[in-house]
């Protein structure tokens, strides 16, 4: 059985907006955010998206696992791609700069050099703000959108039935996998398997996690086959299907879409005028 994210009706302003309008607005704001590397503009979008998060009436208890995953991925991206290798930085950061720490380690006749500059450190902070702004924008959707409206929403955005239903299943896959993992963990604990006392090296711990990973993986594969067979038996995709959930735009929905379009157009104009590139406070260089 498929499950969804921790959704319940909070009677918030965000939930009164048509889900299609919310998706259109989010995509428009996403494009606007990606135009800028100036932390001042990114802070504006972060404040705007946090305002949406507040209006959705979400609590930290409900979203802490999602935020934990976001912080983990963000930390890896910033530390590895920006601070260590500079692979994810832009040209202004990679060329020269004002060094803070310079380390040279000789290894078998080679020299491993690492230099941390003010530009690279500020770019890392800018990247953190950018990722948080995008995360706060889209994190609201799965927790405040009725799971029954997933398919109808994507179909209402003009996507084919197959793609709309595939996205519907994709949104349900992660929480379903989490539910199955928790059930498997509880079942193994009931049989005396002590997960908290996994010792040994990395490979030994991975091997001991097999009683949890293998059943969850096999169940996910079998569930996917069951869904595929059920759809084939119902001749899914041969004809245009209907959806029990009917969506209609209202004035509030048009206002939300218009605001997103206005912000995107303003961002494009600012970008054409030369604003929005990487910005470093002059006070940091003094």
Describe this protein's structure.
This protein is mainly alpha-helical. The protein has two domains: 11-145 and 248-280, no CATH class; 147-247, no CATH class. Helices cover 62% and strands 6% of the residues. The chain is built from ten helices and two strands. It has helices at 19-33, 39-55, 60-84, 91-94, 118-144, 150-156, 161-190, 202-208, 210-233, 251-272; strands at 99-107, 110-117. A two-stranded antiparallel sheet has the order 1-2. A hairpin with a 2-residue loop joins strand 1 and strand 2.
- Please provide the count of β strands: 2
Strand order in space, largest sheet: 1-2
Shape: flat
Q: Low-confidence stretches at least 5 residues in length (pLDDT < 50)?
A: none
Helix content: 55-70%
Query: What's the end-to-end separation, in Å?
Result: 61 Å
Rg for CA atoms: 24 Å
Question: Helices and strands in order, then pairings?
Answer:
Blueprint: H1 19-33, H2 39-55, H3 60-84, H4 91-94, E1 99-107, E2 110-117, H5 118-144, H6 150-156, H7 161-190, H8 202-208, H9 210-233, H10 251-272
Antiparallel strand pairs: 1-2
Helix pairs in contact: 1-5, 1-10, 2-5, 3-5, 6-7, 7-9
Jot down its keywords.
286 residues; mainly alpha; 10 helices; 6% strand
